């Protein structure tokens, strides 16, 4: 995968298990070995095995039935992308596990509407980095991205094509501006012509926007707008109870 010399361990397991399912070694309808069996076979933790199985569930290849186990559902992965985010650490890993291609780096002047979204002021000059994210360098992009960087940090824009990991982490480290909060907003709308072309969808299709704004004590470090084809995207989060029921 791009930006890392070898695949993460759970991705290696995903590839092995997927190959077994596609080849028929694990036929459709059969019960998979247990998590403990896979932990012993691959010499990994239960967490790593669960992450691998989670990816296979997202592909539609397997399903988990409480009290019964994990079953093979189909032998071909469905065309969709699954995303679960519980921490900035997972977001960093997400950037490593996927491929990102920058297609443009430009300067612009913030309008009132855009300033309100990115956390800037109308009339300020910011840098916008446009890019495409895919599972592998040669795969169809599943995400069209525009990342807005404030003028005080625009000197870092030329470094972004070569950075490893998400932009916020690179900028945070180079500018010595620790991220205090990461704000996320999710909305949906019809795809604009630019988004439709980038994702290979129709302008009548719905695009799902995930906007994340990373903020330091000095203000916005980067505001990232990420559009996905809503028909092929699943977002999952786990919410825990704060106190006693």
Overview of this structure, please?
The protein is of the alpha+beta class. It folds into two domains: 9-72, Winged helix-like DNA-binding domain superfamily/Winged helix DNA-binding domain (Arc Repressor Mutant, subunit A, Orthogonal Bundle); 81-236, Chorismate lyase-like (Chorismate lyase, 3-Layer(aba) Sandwich). The protein is built from seven helices and ten strands. The chain has helices spanning 9-23, 35-42, 46-58, 88-97, 112-118, 167-175, 193-199, and strands spanning 62-65, 69-72, 81-84, 99-109, 125-134, 143-149, 181-190, 206-216, 219-229, 233-236. A six-stranded antiparallel beta sheet has the order 4-5-6-9-8-7. Strands 1-2 form a two-stranded antiparallel ribbon. A two-stranded parallel ribbon has the order 3-10. The protein is elongated. Residues 1-7 have low confidence and may be disordered.
């Amino acid at each position: 995968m791009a930006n890392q010399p070898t695949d993460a361990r759970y991705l290696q397991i995903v590839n092995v298990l997927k190959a077994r399912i596609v080849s028929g070694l694990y036929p459709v309808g059969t019960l998979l070995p247990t998590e403990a069996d896979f932990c012993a076979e691959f010499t990994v933790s239960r967490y790593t095995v669960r992450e691998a199985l989670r990816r296979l569930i997202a592909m539609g290849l397997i399903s988990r039935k409480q009290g019964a186990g994990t079953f093979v559902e189909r032998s071909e992965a469905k065309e969709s992308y699954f995303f679960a985010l519980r921490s900035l650490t997972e977001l960093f890993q997400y950037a490593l596990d996927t491929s990102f291609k920058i297609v443009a780096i430009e300067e612009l002047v913030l309008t009132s509407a855009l300033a309100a979204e990115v956390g800037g002021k109308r009339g300020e000059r910011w840098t916008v980095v446009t890019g495409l994210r895919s599972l592998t360098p040669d795969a169809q992009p599943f995400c069209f991205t525009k990342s807005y960087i404030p003028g005080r940090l625009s000197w870092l824009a030329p470094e972004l094509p070569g950075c490893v990991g998400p932009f916020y982490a690179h900028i945070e480290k180079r500018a010595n501006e620790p991220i205090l909060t990461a704000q996320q907003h999710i909305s949906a709308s019809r795809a604009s012509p630019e988004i439709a072309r980038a994702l290979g969808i129709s302008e009548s299709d719905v695009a799902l926007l995930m906007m994340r704004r990373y903020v330091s004590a000095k203000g916005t470090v980067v505001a990232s707008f990420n559009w996905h084809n809503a028909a092929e995207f699943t977002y999952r989060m786990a919410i825990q109870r704060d106190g006693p029921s």
